[in-house]
Every structure is written in C-alpha cells, then in structure tokens.
Amino acid sequence: MSPSALPPAFYVTGTDTGIGKTFSSCALLHALRQRGHRAVGMKPVASGCEDTAEGLRNEDATALFAASLPTPAYADLNPYALPLPLAPELAAAAAGVTLSLAPIEAAFARLRAQADTVVVEGVGGWLAPLSTTLDQSHLVHALQLPVVMVVGLRLGCLNHARLTAQAIAASGATCIGWIANEVDPQMERIDDNVGLLRARLPLPFWGRLPYAPGADPAQLACHLLTS
C-alpha cells in the first residue's frame, strides 16, 4: 500500500507474542518518515517496565519513542506503564491499576494532533486481553483503527496467521494489511511459506522483514510499503 493511501492511524497486532510487532512498528514509522510523513508510535499498555530517573519505561515503548518524529510526550505514547513482565491484566492488578479507555483515548487524541500517522502497537497476539473487561478489539473500535497484522515466520505461522485474520474479522475490525517478519533463521522453505500465506490471506501484503537481530529498523524500512 502506498503511504499516501494509508489511514491517519492504525493498530499493529501479531500472530503471537515475540514475533516482532515492535520492530515492525518501528520500521513502519521510519518508512513513513522517509516519505515525508510526521509519524509517531503509541504503546497504550506496556508491562515489564523498568523504574528510571524519568519514571517507568518500557523497552518496546522506548523503541517506538526513538522511531517517532516529531517526538511525543512519553506519557502520551505509553499511558499505562506497568512494572511486572506479565499479561497486562495480571500486571495491572499487581500494580493496583484499573485499565480504562478514557486515558488512552485522550493520549491518542494528543498524538493525532501532532502527526500525520499514528502507529499503535498492541500487546501479545490479537486475543490477548487488556483487562477483565477490555479486549484489544474494544480499544480498536474506540479509536476507530484499522488493523495491520505481523506474521512471525516460523513453523505454525500458516495456522496462526489464518486464525488471527479470522479473529480480527470476527471482532468487526478491518485488517488492511499484513507484514511477514522472519523470526526463525532455521525455518525451512521460508519463501514457499510466504507464498502460501500470500495466496491464503485475502489482505494487502505490506512487505517482508529479514531476520536481522539488533538491526536498525531505519535501515530495513525499505522493505515495507514498497508498492
């Protein structure tokens, strides 16, 4: 998809946790910036935050912060920063925090006011809940966001990708594209698997990120939004 055809904000989800949502989101931010867009990231809920001199900080949210231009307020980029590295529902309970949509909606509005595009990164896989009463689909609907799905290329990705795409559609959300991210360098016949995914996912293909641990996402942005 051409950057000029992109919506002003979208939600990045994945086929599982640890499949490169943050790396893909950062690469997307750089791809947009390289095309002249003001692009900022958002991580509404982040667990596993460290206590720093500036307050609680999350590694994924910090990466999005570094990839954003203009530079947003960290509190807007990451409204809910939770200390324990647990599922958000458990981390919030342990911190005595009740997650609600209102602070996220207010922070999102401030980010939208300063950027052409806001890239909002979710937690875990699509059906990972935010709280006892909030699923990620509730957040997507509240912010009126289409969804981009990151597929971690490893054994089982065909099943995980198709199930995730079906779950997104079943929730009433709109998936506008998917990204293939190479997470397993030992995966056999990876090109064939990407071909199978492209044939079976009725969604625009936004690109494929190579296996490159520790790479600068700015250097890999050329692999995304090429059409």
Characterization of the model:
The protein is of the alpha/beta class and 227 residues long. It has a single domain (3-223), classed as 3-Layer(aba) Sandwich (Rossmann fold). It contains nine helices and ten strands. The strands form three sheets. A six-stranded parallel beta sheet has the order 2-7-1-8-9-10, with helices on both faces. Strand 4 and strand 5 form a beta hairpin. Helix 1 (21-33) packs parallel to helix 2 and helix 7 (157-170) packs parallel to helix 8. The longest helix is centred in the middle third of the chain and has 14 residues, at 101-114. The radius of gyration is 16 Å and the shape is globular. The model has no long low-confidence stretch (mean pLDDT 95). Pfam families: AAA_26. Belongs to the dethiobiotin synthetase family.
Notable traits:
single chain; 227 residues; alpha/beta; Rossmann fold; six-stranded parallel sheet; two-stranded parallel ribbon; 9 helices; 10 strands; 37% helix; 21% strand; globular; EC 6.3.3.3; biotin biosynthesis; magnesium; cytoplasm
Helices and strands in order, then pairings?
Blueprint: E1 9-14, H1 21-33, E2 39-42, E3 45-47, E4 50-52, E5 55-57, H2 59-67, H3 74-77, E6 80-82, H4 88-95, H5 101-114, E7 117-121, H6 136-143, E8 147-153, H7 157-170, E9 175-182, H8 190-200, E10 205-209, H9 217-220
Parallel strand pairs: 1-7, 1-8, 2-7, 3-6, 8-9, 9-10
Antiparallel strand pairs: 4-5
Helix pairs in contact: 1-2, 7-8
